[in-house]
Specification:
Layout: H1 4-28, E1 31-32, E2 38-42, H2 50-59, E3 64-67, E4 73-77
Antiparallel strand pairs: 1-2, 2-4, 3-4
Length: 81
């Protein structure tokens, strides 16, 4: 019984560290463009274009969205285009 308690504790510590380290990775994937818009989802011709981008941005509470030509990502904004 003495070996089970440390191994279970070790398992929980590893699980906690892993979950916290992946949180920072997910937050780092969001890119802010030069004008302050939030750009995160890649625009894919024929699959995820302007309509899908704008729709997802409006669902998330932004006024609209556009596919940035330089980064090839969907950028959500609250200003008029």
């Amino acid at each position: 019984m003495d070996i089970r308690k440390p191994s279970i504790t070790f398992f929980f510590v590893i699980t906690l560290v892993t979950s916290l380290s992946s949180y920072n990775t997910l937050a780092a994937s969001v890119i802010n463009s030069a004008n302050g818009d939030v750009c995160d989802v890649p625009c894919v011709p024929g699959k995820y274009e302007l309509f899908e981008c704008a729709h997802d941005c409006m669902v998330d509470g932004f006024s609209t969205g556009y596919c940035d030509k330089k980064s090839q990502k969907c950028c959500c904004t609250n200003r008029g285009i």
